[in-house]
Structure formats: C-alpha cells, structure tokens
C-alpha cells in the first residue's frame, strides 16, 4: 500500500524542490478573479494546473463554465475502486494593502517559508494534496483520485455549478475532500464539518448631484453618509454584534452540547486568537462564547463606507452620494434569499431612499460530525501531524461545497492545512514547508483509509 514510514518520509523530502518550484510558478500568476484587469491571468493559471497534473501522469482538462474555467483531472486506476474528488481553488484575493513588505506576486522562499499572495489560500494546500495523491497512486493504492480546481472561489463561485454539470468532464465521486480551511493554531489540527453562508450587500443613497459646501448648505442639505450610518446602527449593535433586523434569528439552529464540547476540545486560546489576527480587544473573553460566535452564530458586518472626501485634512463638504458595504454570515437553517428580503424590508422602513442590492449569496453548509469518513480524517491527520484534529465549524464560506453537496449527495470532508498566522486574505501571506510536508503525509494516509472503505 503506501509503503513504510521511512519510504514516505523520503518521498516527501525528495518532493520539496518540486513543490517549491510548482508553488513559485503558481504564486507569480496574479489570478485575482474579482479584478477584471487580471482576466488574462486566468487562462495562464489554468494552463499551469493542467501541466502539473499531466506531468505526474494524470489526465487533465479545462472545463468551460461560462465564466472562468474549472480544471478537472486525476488518475482512474480501476472501475471497482472508490473515487474521491479533492477540491481546491487557484484564484486569489487582491493584494493592494500598503502593509506588504515585498511584491505580493514575486514568490520568495526563506528557509521553508513561502511568501506571496495565494501561498496558503489556496495554492500551497492544493499542491500538498496533489503530491500526497501522487505518492498513493505510485504505491498502487486501489483508489481513483480526481482533482477539481476552481478559479472563481473568491467571488462566490458564480459559474461553478455550470461546470459541475458537465458530466463528461467531472464524474460523480464517492466522496469529496476540501483543503481550503484554517486551523485554530499551529500544532492544533482542526477539521471543520460546517461552513457559514454569506450574503453581501451594497446600500446606496444619492441625495444630490454633487458634493456641496457645508458652510453654505449644511443644516438644510441631507447627508447620505450620516443617514447610512444611522441605517447601519439600526441593523446591528456595534458593541455586542447583535443583529437587530426583525426576524433575523428566527431560523437559526443553535449548536448542540456535543458540538460545543468538541469546540472546547480544540485547544482554542483567546490570547493566541488575538495575537494571530492582531486584535487588541474583543467583544468577549469567554473561549466558548468566542468559538460559538465565529463558527456557529450569524453576523452582520460593515466593511466600508464611501462617499464624500477621503484626502488629507478635512474638506468641509456635504456629500451628494454615499455607499455602505455590508455582509451577513449565516448558519443552518438560514437562507440568503430570506435574510436578504428581511434586510431589504427593514431598510425600506428605516429609509425608503436607500437602495439595497445583493452582492452574491452563499448557502450555509453542515456536513458529517461522526461516522467512518470522520474517523478516516482523524487517523490521517494523526499520521501526518501527530494529533487527531478537533472537529469544529468554519466561520468562512465556500460556495462550491454547497453546490457539490446538492449535485452529488456524497460525504464532503475537510482537510485544511493553513494556520491563522499564514494570513488568509491579509498582507504578507505565506505558507510553510512543515504544514506542506505533514499535509502530504496526511493525504497519502487518507487515500489509503478511503481505499479500505471501498466504494460507497
């Protein structure tokens, strides 16, 4: 099967130059799916991905979706063997923050630390899974391994379903494993079984044709920024985070006692959470309550308020236009459509001149908390990292997961490799060889565990 420990260890050590070379090439393609100016980079990253798969003896193809494509490929070793699909994404967030110490798309390696946008989200984990799979195939593990690499995850996977329904290109697997999640802390593996949903919205208000002098018009002129701030304050308690939209919590399913117990076993520490994300203070210091809030409770967040003057000093104008950018994270059994309707109705009552537009909707996901697939993940993670993972929920959203669940109705598990300090969506993002190497080990063992289980 996967051979002895020393053989696998040697394979991984020998794979390091290949891993670093492949990751370097991927990171230096600025595959920013939300930036129209980067549209030409998406075919480049798709071509690289196909080359990577084919260089390891896998078949691979680009699947058109009507938007940016999906890369589908892998090894089919036997019709009677179980088939697993590994999902990752190769598009990345923008990298415009002034805090970047180096160019975000100039790959740099520094003693096992790999710098660059996309290194941990999600190009490094994708390559770790790929090289772990190649080892399993080379060792003759009786399993079919398929890869599904998306190029639109960071914009909510708007065309993923269209690509998935191309049955000739993407066959139905027996199970799916996703490697696009974050641990609680270094040395503390965490595998989520649930994801929060998401709905983004833009609230806009136009009260004039242009900005006006506040000394001449102030007091009589409406101020759209002040009115939008009033709307935001009516929607959410800024100090507690409690959402005040009527009916918002009606469908929320609270986590069970068993789930909270699993959260507490995770080793979550408030001090390390604050350190990893650069927080000075939090809304609460209670670990159980923090975990409930970030994994299993819905939210309302304000992301930006634009309009008026943003230069140095104070320019005394009354803006003619304002825009408020917000989002809401959702939990089972909330639905984006219903929550958006509640928001729109509430805002219309507060201020009928405010226009509310949706910016993407993602359903929440709840997967397996126990059973043979969960046990397989536990054993694989322990083989790779020396510890069984805590089973938690993930506070973020992955649109493709819900689409795969609806289309295939197969078990979907998570084996993320990223750490909080790696900087998901943050400046100075990086990945590290320790997580990559142990991830390869974990994936190699996971494929063997699945092979023992047989077809679903």
UniProtKB/TrEMBL annotation:
<keyword id="KW-0479">Metal-binding</keyword>
<keyword id="KW-0378">Hydrolase</keyword>
<dbReference type="InterPro" id="IPR002933">
    <property type="entry name" value="Peptidase_M20"/>
</dbReference>
<dbReference type="InterPro" id="IPR011650">
    <property type="entry name" value="Peptidase_M20_dimer"/>
</dbReference>
<keyword id="KW-0645">Protease</keyword>
<dbReference type="Pfam" id="PF01546">
    <property type="entry name" value="Peptidase_M20"/>
</dbReference>
<dbReference type="InterPro" id="IPR051458">
    <property type="entry name" value="Cyt/Met_Dipeptidase"/>
</dbReference>
<dbReference type="GO" id="GO:0006508">
    <property type="term" value="P:proteolysis"/>
</dbReference>
<dbReference type="GO" id="GO:0008233">
    <property type="term" value="F:peptidase activity"/>
</dbReference>
<dbReference type="GO" id="GO:0046872">
    <property type="term" value="F:metal ion binding"/>
</dbReference>
<protein>
    <submittedName>
        <fullName>Putative Peptidase M20</fullName>
    </submittedName>
</protein>
<feature type="domain" description="Peptidase M20 dimerisation">
    <location>
        <begin position="193"/>
        <end position="353"/>
    </location>
</feature>
<dbReference type="Pfam" id="PF07687">
    <property type="entry name" value="M20_dimer"/>
</dbReference>
């Amino acid at each position: 099967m996967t051979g002895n420990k020393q053989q696998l260890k040697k394979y991984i050590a020998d794979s390091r130059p290949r891993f670093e070379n492949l990751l370097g090439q991927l990171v230096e393609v600025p595959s920013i799916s939300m930036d129209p100016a980067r549209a030409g980079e998406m075919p480049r990253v798709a071509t690289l991905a196909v080359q990577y798969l084919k260089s390891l003896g896998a078949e691979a193809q680009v699947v058109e979706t009507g938007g940016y494509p999906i890369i589908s490929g892998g090894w089919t070793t036997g019709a009677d063997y179980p088939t697993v699909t590994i999902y990752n994404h190769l598009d990345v967030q923008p990298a415009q923050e002034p805090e970047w110490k180096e160019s975000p798309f100039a790959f740099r390696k520094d003693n096992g630390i790999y710098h660059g946008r996309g290194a941990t989200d999600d190009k490094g984990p994708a390559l770790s899974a790929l090289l772990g799979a190649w080892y399993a195939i080379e060792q003759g593990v009786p399993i079919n391994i398929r890869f599904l690499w998306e190029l639109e995850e960071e914009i909510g996977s708007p065309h993923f379903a269209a690509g998935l329904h191309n049955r000739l290109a993407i066959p139905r697997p027996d199970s799916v494993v996703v490697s696009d999640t974050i641990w609680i802390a270094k040395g503390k593996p965490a595998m989520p079984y649930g994801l929060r949903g998401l709905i983004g919205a833009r609230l806009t208000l136009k009260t004039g044709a242009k900005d006006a002098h506040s000394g001449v018009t102030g007091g009589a002129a409406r101020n759209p920024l002040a009115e939008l701030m009033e709307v935001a304050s009516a929607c959410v308690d800024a100090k507690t985070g409690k959402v005040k939209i009527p009916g918002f919590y009606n469908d929320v399913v609270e986590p069970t006692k068993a789930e909270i117990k699993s959260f507490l076993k995770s080793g979550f520490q408030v001090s390390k959470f604050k350190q990893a994300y650069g927080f000075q203070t939090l809304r609460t210091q209670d670990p159980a309550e923090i975990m409930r809030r970030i994994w299993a409770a819905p939210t309302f967040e304000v992301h930006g308020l634009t309009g008026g003057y943003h230069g140095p000093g104070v320019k005394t104008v009354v803006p003619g236009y304002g825009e408020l950018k917000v989002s809401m994270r959702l939990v089972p059994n909330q639905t984006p459509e219903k929550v958006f309707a509640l928001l729109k109705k509430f805002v219309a009552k507060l201020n009928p001149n405010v226009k509310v537009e949706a910016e993407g909707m993602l359903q929440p996901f709840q997967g397996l908390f126990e059973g043979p697939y969960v046990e397989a993940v536990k054993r694989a993670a322990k083989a790779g990292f020396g510890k069984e993972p805590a089973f938690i929920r993930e506070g973020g959203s992955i649109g493709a997961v819900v689409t795969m669940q609806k289309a295939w109705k197969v078990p979907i598990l998570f084996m993320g490799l990223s750490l909080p300090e790696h900087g998901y969506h943050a400046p100075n993002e990086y990945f590290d060889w320790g997580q990559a190497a142990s991830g390869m080990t974990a994936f190699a063992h996971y494929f063997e565990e699945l092979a023992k289980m047989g077809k679903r």
